[in-house]
Design brief:
- Strands 1-2 form a two-stranded antiparallel sheet.
- The C terminus is likely disordered.
- 40% of the residues are buried.
- The longest helix is centred in the first third of the chain and has 40 residues.
- The chain has a domain of 184 residues.
- By secondary structure, the chain is mainly alpha-helical.
- It contains 16 helices and six strands.
- Helix 1 packs antiparallel against helix 5 and helix 7 crosses helix 12.
- The N and C termini lie far apart (72 Å).
- Helix content is 68%, strand content 6%.
């Protein structure tokens, strides 16, 4: 059934599917790890039980999301050696070291302290437990540091030379490889997006329980109010910052990858006297035009060049074989930007409700927060689609084409593994996500139980622990002196 489909296209679809499913979990856990560290610090500082209740509530969800993120991420490294073995051979000398450092530093830091964070509060004392929470939070950000460094190098390669005999990329300056031209912008934009993703999920859960208690005529617990309040503070403060970071990232992309920006803006034609900002339209690659375009004159040049009359080049200056798929990039970019503006709007709305002292008594605000709960996840996927599809037709921008990076596999082999991945991912991670949603549907009650008290069976690796009742029974059967 896959004989008529290009093997490279199937490999790209497979990688896009697996990396999108994977990134949903780190996009959530990066922010959630920091949120848990803040909650734990507030509990130690104030001794208010609402912070401990929130920590115990969200740490269970974090444990599940973190585990699914680890498992789904394992597949990435295998695909580099199967579907993309040529890319691995050519770019491996450059990207191999940062990926190894991600495991040796960030992942080991997370894995080493995760158990203490989850189960160690009563075992190691408050100081070491707080250190463990901070270590996991730092580890998640550090992991993003290395992964984004690799991906940014593929977007804006630097600090390398190409071996004329083997065609391999060989590093000449490790610091230029890591801190390539687009890396600082992409790191800040992505990590901030992860914090916003967590804030809107937490805020959506808090709003859901505020609405539920209101419908029942009950007052919401302090933990629920605090959860919603903290999330709305994050939305109000960070969403505008994210818009600024996105603009800076876009200007950096215009400098280093102009065809990507042309596709994002729908600029098929050059505009020598100022480019419009197209709000909507249907990209037509065959005719090289934007059909049914709705735009604001001069605004595109004002945003991109800070001058309404500045000339802006279009895709008519780029050879057809070097143009990215405009339709996907154009609409993915608008989904991301549109959701970002909605996030900022919800944050401003929450400030208005807070100023009126109605933050916990604003049902329409709460409904909007519930609707916006998954917006961060959708926005980060749309952002990744914009970035990765906009880089096409290259894997290493301007130097190594995607068609030259794929392994020489037949379409049926790639298609069969794609179908297997889809079935397995939806079965396993769908079940895990369903359970996370079940946990979120329960409110963060006072005296939230510890993680250890809600897990079934032993939590140690030395074997099955005898039941307390059985141990007590055996002790009673013993005779004196035995």
């Amino acid at each position: 059934m896959f004989d008529s489909i290009d093997a490279v296209l199937l490999a790209r679809i497979q990688f896009a599917f697996t990396v999108s499913m994977h990134f949903l979990f780190p996009a959530f856990t990066i922010g959630l790890a920091s949120y848990l560290a803040v909650l734990n610090g507030l509990w130690l500082w104030t001794k208010e039980t609402k912070y401990l209740d929130l920590f115990r509530y969200w740490v269970k969800i974090f444990a599940l999301a973190f585990a699914m993120g680890v498992v789904s991420g394992i597949v990435m490294s295998y695909q580099f050696g199967t579907n993309w073995s040529v890319f691995s051979d050519r770019a491996g000398p450059v990207i191999g070291a940062p990926m190894a450092y991600e495991v040796l530093s960030a992942f080991f830091l997370e894995a080493g302290f995760l158990g203490i964070m989850l189960f160690g509060r009563e075992r190691v004392g408050p100081t070491l437990h707080m250190i463990a929470c901070l270590a996991v939070a730092v580890g998640t950000v550090f992991s993003a540091f290395w992964i984004l460094s690799v991906n940014s190098w593929m977007q804006t390669p630097a600090g390398f030379e190409i071996d004329p005999e083997t065609g391999q990329f060989l590093p000449t300056d490790f610091w230029q490889v890591i801190f390539n031209p687009s890396f600082p912008y992409r790191l800040m934009h992505t990590v901030t997006a992860a914090y916003l993703t967590t804030a809107f999920i937490v805020g959506g859960v808090g709003a859901y329980h505020l609405l539920l208690r209101r419908r029942r005529g009950q007052s919401a617990p302090e933990a629920t109010k605090t959860m919603f309040s903290m999330a709305m503070w994050m939305a109000a403060i960070v969403a505008p910052i994210q818009i600024f970071l996105g603009d800076a990232h876009g200007l950096n992309t215009l400098e280093h990858q102009p065809p990507k920006v042309m596709a994002m803006e729908g600029h098929y034609e050059s505009h020598p006297h100022g480019a419009p900002l197209y709000l909507f339209g249907i990209p037509n690659d065959a005719e090289q035009r934007l059909d049914y375009a709705v735009g604001i004159p001069k605004l595109g040049s004002l945003i991109l060049k800070h001058d309404p009359n500045a000339p802006v080049a279009g895709l008519d200056t780029v050879p057809d074989e070097d143009q990215p798929p405009v339709f996907i990039v154009f609409w993915a970019f608008r989904v991301m930007v549109g959701l970002g503006l909605c996030m900022a709007g919800l944050g401003m709305w929450s400030l208005w409700a807070r100023w009126r002292k109605r933050l916990y008594d604003a049902p329409w605000l709460h409904r909007a927060a519930v609707v916006m709960a998954p917006s961060g996840l959708i926005a980060v996927i749309a952002g990744w689609v914009t970035t990765e599809v906009g880089r096409q037709p290259f894997t290493v921008y301007g130097l190594l084409r995607t068609a030259e990076s794929a392994a020489p596999l037949d379409s049926p082999a790639v298609g069969a593994s794609l179908v297997a991945f889809v079935l397995v991912y939806f079965a396993i991670f769908g079940s895990g996500t369903f359970y996370i949603l079940r946990l979120m549907s329960r409110p963060a009650d006072a005296n939230e139980p510890r993680l250890g008290s809600v897990t079934e069976g032993p939590t140690r690796t030395a074997g099955i622990t005898p039941a307390a009742g059985a141990a007590s029974h055996r002790s009673k059967d013993r005779q004196p002196g035995e």
